[in-house]
Each structure stands twice: as structure tokens, then as C-alpha cells.
Amino acid sequence: MSVTRNSRFFKFILIAFVVTIFIVIATRHTVLKTSDLDNQEYPREFLPKTSEEEVVNPNQETTNNNENQENAIKVEEDKNSDNAAEVVDNIEVVSKSTEDIQDTVDETMPGAYLKNFIPAATNKSYCKFNYDLPYDLIYNSKVYLSPPEFKKNSLFKILYNAVEAHNISDVPQVTYATHMTANYAYFILELLKRWEGLISVAAFVPDLDSALYMEQITQYCYCEPEMHRVSIHLVTHKLLAFSKKDMNFFRPDNCIVKDSLKIGTFKDFDDTIIYPINVVRNVARTSALTTFVLVSDVELMPSKGLISKFLGMIKNYNKTDVKEVYALPLFEVEKTATVPDSKDQLLKLLNANQAVYYHEKSCPQCQKFPEIEEWLTNGYSDEIRPFIKVKRQGAFFRWDPVFIGTNADPLYSEKLSWEGLYDKIIHSLEMCLQDYNYTILDNAFLCHWPGIKQESDQEWRLPFIEQNQIEYTEIIENLLKKYKNIPECKGSWILDRVKNNLSLNNEKLNVSVTDTVVDNV
């Protein structure tokens, strides 16, 4: 009798153990899911990573996880489900649970429109991920490449096509090449609404920024069908490896976009790392899959239908110059205004004092393009056409054009930083010395996301300005040796100006930001 009781007791213990193991296995994805890294702290100092073990690996749940725990469990179950009806049911549950949150979304925020979308099924992402993303990040030295200009001598490394454009045979053949940090991700969504073609993004996302960035991108990939037109290339400092252990993202609970600007990035905790603006420009441009490429900042929104109208113009345009690019006028509007779709809408905003040409308040000479007054009074039509052909010379050597060009154009100088200002001055000078022509387009433009930039205190930039000026000296001297000098390009004048400024103290350097390198002639 005693043996029988003992036998039953051990059977009970065995069954309880098996049930416990089963519960642990069944719930492991929910327990371990990392869906928000915003509260993670960065190291306070810039120190090289010597091994992957040094990368922070937080396993923190988001506030939404606590509020929507049951929905999160359902979403995770979908990952292993082949039942389409079950997936649809779960999507409906998630959609209902977000109705209250939708009412609080800032409608003026980039990507706010996505709140009305529903995430695709678990296996139906609109993106083509590489390197085992978004569930992991696996790569080797063969794909961990160097930038276009300085290659292996560069301080930066790239993973090309972390997200790769696909199904693009019917997409208009002009690429919008742009760059960003993790806290500007949501501007991709606004570009997709206004740009019909491909988008090539180079994202500088060192250390944990890579996970913060890819979490947002993963949501967009499940929510915005047009993400198939986007290629994303990840860039980092060679001593700040991407945060592999934090890449573990699944189908989002909803399509409510978080405010990217509220995300803390590496530079918020370590300002010794510069933003390599010309590295990311080169990466984005050279990765373009089309002949024509527009290199632009991500906050500059194109007028509607720009690509199709531009390509229509090109078919009938008798191009006679080998070195020719197509410049787009730039504008900005008040924070309360809406980005205009057409020149007609733009002119109405200008007449109502709701718009100005780009940087009119902060750097008047930078974007006041040739014949701007005539462009504004020339009327408007639905067709893009050549307005005037000019050179960036003489009185307009300070003009900072944004244009549609090709990969045959000079690369941007990767030695210059965004913090040091005038990061495109060398690029424009080299194009001038190559005798480029700029055809300014009519009925086409770029408009900055609402909010007119005002002149502000830039004293914090002084050390970076001085460093950029050191680089200017060497680069300009080499350019003047490489090309036949064209006096109207003002290369020699800029060089003399830079050399003089290098001998001044910081207080003397702290003239107007618009006067540091380029001044009235």
C-alpha cells in the first residue's frame, strides 16, 4: 500500500514539473519581448567597444505592454500561426484597443496619418529585410563596408541595404537620397506620401541608436505598404558597433507612430561624436538604383508629382551640356501652415506672409537663387519646365543649391562635419571648377517641414567650425591644383578668408554664422 502511495506521489510531482516547463516555454516570447528602448541610458563617455558583451542589452517592457498585455500575447501567437482567420481576428482586437490612443495623436506630427492603418499579418511585412532583421542583426566583415570617399581610411562603417527596396519595376526612376539619425525616422513616412519614386536613406545610428531606429522602421514596414520603395543603409562609427543584442522586433500592436524627436540618441549623452553628414550623403547617393538622384535633407518635402513631371520634361529637353544638373527652389512655411503641393499654393502662402524662401531669416544668401523675383512672378502651370540656366559663380558663389543630378557628380567631402557648418561648400566649389551648369526648374520646389528657422546662438559650434576650416584649407588647395582655376568660383578668395580666420581667436570667430566662411565680396 505504501509503495502505491509513493508511486502516485512521484507521478503527481512529475506531471506538475512537465506542466511548469510547458507554461515557461509557451510564454517565453511575451516575457522576453523588447519593444521599446527609449528609457535606456547610454554610456556617458565615448569609449571603444572591445567586444559584443559590452553592448547594453535591456529587456524592458513599454507602457503600452502593460496596457495591452492580452493583445501583445495574441500578436506573438500569430507569429507561429498559419490560420489567416485567426490573424484577422487578432488585428481587429488590437485595432479596437487603440481607438482611445488615436484621439490623442498630434495630427501635425510627421507620419500621424498612419494611426488609421492596421498592421499587416506577422509574415506580411512590406519591407525586404537583410542581416536577419528585424528579429536579429547578423553580419560579417565582408558586408561591413567603408564609405565611398575615404574607404578603409574612414572612421565610419556601413551596412548597406539593411532594408532593401523591392517590387520596383513600375516605380518612376528618380531616387530621393537622404540621411538622418534615429530621431528623424518618421519623416520617411511623409516623403512616401509626396515622392513617387525610390528613397535611399543613410541612417547614422551608432550603438543603441540602431535598435531605437529599427524598432520604428519595423513598425513602418508592417503598416505602410509603400515602404517597399525604401532602401535603408545603417552607418556607425567604427568604435561604436551596432547594438546587435537589442534587435528583436516583431509585428507591432498598432500603427500609431511615436514622436521620433522625443527619442534620446547617442549624441544626447556623448557630444564628442560628430554627425558625418557627407559620409551619409555619399552612402545614400551612391546606393541609388536610378540614373537621376536628388540628394536632399529629409525635412525637405517635394512638390506633388515632381518625378513624373520632371521625367516628362526630360523627354523633350534638348540637353546640350554634359555637366548639367537641375536645381530646385527651396522654401519654408510657418508652423501653422501646410506644406504646399503646387506653385499655386506656394504663391498664396508667400502673398499671405506664411512662407519665405529657405533660410531667409537665418542665412539670407544661402538659398536666394538667381532670378528669384522673376520665378515668383512668372505665374504657374501644371508642367515642370526649365526656368533659367546659370552657373554658381560671381555674386551667386554663396548659393547652396539642392538639385537632381547623377552619380557622375563629385562626391561630398567626408572630412567635413555638420556641426562645423558649410559642409557642402567644397562640393559646390568643385562643381564650379568643373564648370557645371544649373538649370533651375519652374513649377517644382522643395519645402521644409512647417516651422521657419530663425537665426540662433551658434557659439557651441565654434570648435567644429575651426576644425572644418582646417579641412577647407587643405581641400581647397588641392582642388585649385587639380582643376584650372575659374576666378568667378571664388576658390582663392575663400581660401584666403579661411586662412585669415584660422589665426583669430574664438571670440573673433564668433561673428554671424552666415559670415564665418562666406561674406559679401
Task: Please give the structural blueprint.
Elements: H1 2-32, H2 63-67, H3 69-78, H4 84-97, H5 99-102, E1 128-129, E2 144-145, E3 156-164, E4 174-180, H6 187-194, E5 198-204, H7 209-223, E6 230-237, H8 277-286, E7 292-295, E8 300-302, H9 306-316, E9 324-327, E10 330-333, H10 343-351, E11 355-357, H11 372-377, E12 385-390, E13 403-405, H12 425-433, E14 437-442, E15 446-448, H13 462-482, H14 491-502, H15 506-509
Transmembrane segments: 12-31
Protein name: N-acetyllactosaminide beta-1,3-N-acetylglucosaminyltransferase
Pfam family, one: Glyco_transf_49
Could you describe the 3D structure shown?
Keywords: Membrane, Transmembrane, Transmembrane helix. It contains 15 helices and 15 strands. Strands 1, 2, 3, 4, 5, 6, 7, 9, 12, 13 and 14 form an eleven-stranded mixed sheet that branches. A four-stranded mixed sheet has the order 8-15-10-11. The chain is globular, with a radius of gyration of 26 Å. The chain folds into two domains: 102-280, no CATH class; 305-515, no CATH class. The protein is α/β, with parallel strands linked by helices and 521 residues long. Strand 4, helix 6 and strand 5 (198-204) form a beta-alpha-beta unit.
Helix share bin: 25-40%
Query: Strand tally, please?
Result: 15
Number of H- or I-type helical stretches: 15
Which word captures the global form? globular
Low-confidence stretches: 1-5, 27-98, 502-521
Order of helices and strands: HHHHHEEEEHEHEHEEHEEHEHEEHEEHHH
Radius of gyration: 26 Å
What average pLDDT do the residues reach?
81
The largest pleated sheet is described as:
11 strands, mixed
What would you call the structural class?
alpha/beta
**Distance separating the two termini:** 109 Å
- Structurally, the number of domains stands at 2
Residues in β-strands, percent: 5-15%
